[in-house]
Write a structure and sequence with these properties.
heterodimer; A: about 270 residues; alpha/beta; D-Maltodextrin-Binding Protein, domain 2; 2 domains; three-stranded parallel beta sheet; 11 helices; B: about 250 residues; mainly alpha; MetI-like fold; about 75% helix; flat
Chain lengths: ~270, ~250
């Protein structure tokens, strides 16, 4: 009996040592500096936050933020395009050092990667409407058809809360075409993505007159356990809010109205 | 009703099996509406496609070569293209060149709704198969039988309605049942043009409540029941039409 306990104890001790040995690797911040390059995961299909210029380079608000981080570290920057389905895995596997990719800060995700506080941006849902349609409040959508994307979490909210009749399609292109053809009064989507769409001249007859709903903060992320890099990024994001860099980038990339979140954070850290 | 809802809520809390359609009134209402839309789609397209099949098979035997060619072109066009592509073509492609109508919100809306296009494309798609199915029945009729009808002074239409069709129907019923079963299952494609049928509402429900496995099971059970009903009806019809000595 005693012998069995001892075996168990030694097994446990072994496990603990193994676990203790796990995080004992080089510090990410030191690694980046010695490599001389910061690898950042960004979106390449989400204008104006991360998209491709005609020459193929990835540009946008988030790549500019990444460049600012690299400048502070005194290293070069390299972009890796990511999508929602692989961005956290890329970070975990070490393919990228830093993730700035329109990711909402949720408790589930914070268990997998270290999401840096404070958050740097926020997005909610909103409605893209033809300028010819006079809708000034969400309540006026009652009984009206609204084009949307299948599976978006806010479809149910808009149907339940405002009584809109949600017509959901599989992709953005289908929903926009249906709206253009007059099958619905407007297009329900992420407010930040609608802003990006409206920068294109073909959507000049459309507007986003209603206030955004249900804003969720966006966080950038580093690998779990990278304490010094995390602290460095937390200071950097606070500094972005303080200097108003995010507000400046919004203007640079043609977003007509500053987001409420960015303005509030600027006031808070100023 | 209240007791049932409470039981399903309890089931969710204790086992994690989350059937929101049983206790959430919003989900239940949209699910039942989805079931209704699927039933409507099925009935309309079954009736429509059988009519298209009957008329097409009749025109295939026409004397004018151009009538026969037009039927052939129709069959090739609709049998050889995927139904999803047809639906997209009608809904997004053809709709944009057809006239529009000003609706109550002051926008120019296409005349034919998503539901309308789903019915039209499914009727044409299944109809093309039905023409060929009825042809197989018609060709099984011995020419001597048709000659006998002609000798009795029947016109071509009279022969088709009174002699050929009753016999041909018996021959092609099993193949027709097959195609109509397929048609019911194909109505799910209408979700792509935002027709709120069963798959569409289920997709929306499982995105909201993350209960994909539960809703999948519900979908499978409902479609098995729907198709089972159709097959039972067709079997009964087959038995009622059976004539000793014809076929098996």
């Amino acid at each position: 009996m005693i012998r069995r306990r001892l075996t168990l104890l030694s097994l446990l001790a072994g496990l603990m040592m193994a676990a203790g040995a796990w995080p004992a690797r080089a510090d990410a911040l030191q690694d980046i500096k010695s490599k001389g390059v910061l690898v950042v995961g960004v979106k390449a299909d989400y204008p104006p936050f991360g998209y491709r210029a005609p020459n193929g380079d990835i540009i946008g608000i988030e790549p500019d933020l990444a460049r600012d981080v690299a400048k502070r570290l005194g290293v070069k920057v390299q972009f890796v395009p990511v999508v929602a389905a692989n961005r956290m895995q890329f970070l975990e596997q070490g393919k990228i050092d830093l993730l700035i990719a329109t990711m909402s800060d949720t408790p589930d995700r914070a268990r997998v990667v270290a999401i840096v506080k404070p958050d740097y941006y926020a997005s909610g849902y909103n409605l893209m409407l033809p300028k010819s349609i006079r809708i000034t409040a969400w309540d006026q959508l009652k009984g009206k058809p609204v084009c949307a994307i299948q599976g978006a979490f806010y479809n149910k909210q808009v149907a339940e809360k405002f009584g809109a009749q949600v017509i959901a399609f599989t992709g953005v292109a289908e929903a926009l075409t249906a709206m253009k053809q007059g099958r619905c009064v407007g297009f329900l989507y992420d407010d930040t993505a609608i802003e990006g769409q409206m920068l294109r001249p073909e959507w000049s007859a459309y507007a986003m007159p209603l206030p955004s709903q249900d804003a969720q903060p966006w966080g950038l992320a580093v690998r779990m356990g990278e304490k010094s890099f995390y602290d460095f990024m937390a200071k950097t994001v606070a500094d972005w809010h303080k200097t108003g860099l995010i507000l400046k980038l919004e203007t640079k990339y043609g977003i007509p109205q500053h987001s409420k979140f960015a303005e509030e954070m600027h006031k808070k850290y100023e | 009703m209240h007791g049932i809802a409470a039981w399903f809520r309890h089931l969710h809390e204790t086992t994690g099996i989350n059937l929101t359609i049983a206790y959430d009134p919003f989900d239940r209402a949209r699910f039942l509406h989805g079931l209704l839309v699927t039933l409507e789609l099925s009935v309309i397209t079954i009736v429509g496609s059988v009519l298209v099949g009957l008329i097409g098979a009749w025109l295939q035997g026409a004397r004018l070569v151009w009538t026969r060619r037009i039927v052939q072109v129709y069959i090739q066009l609709f049998r050889n293209t995927p139904p999803l592509v047809q639906m997209f073509f009608f809904y997004f492609g053809l709709s944009s060149v057809l006239p529009t109508m000003k609706n109550s919100f002051g926008i120019q809306e296409p005349l034919v709704s998503g539901f309308g296009w789903a019915c039209i494309s499914l009727i044409f798609f299944a109809g093309a198969f039905n023409v060929e199915i009825f042809r197989s029945g018609i060709e099984a009729i011995p020419s001597s039988t048709i000659e006998a009808a002609e000798a009795l002074g029947y016109t071509r239409l009279q022969t088709y309605l009174n002699v050929v069709l009753p016999l041909a129907t018996r021959v092609c019923l099993p193949a027709l049942t097959n195609n109509l079963v397929n048609l019911i299952k194909t109505t799910t494609l209408a979700y792509a043009i935002a027709v709120p049928e069963l798959l569409y509402v289920s997709n929306q429900i499982w995105s909201d409540s993350v209960n994909v496995p539960e809703m999948m099971v519900v979908l499978l059970v409902i479609y098995t029941a729907l198709v089972g009903l159709l097959v039972a009806a067709m079997k009964a019809w087959e038995r009622a039409l059976r004539r000793p000595g014809l076929g098996t």
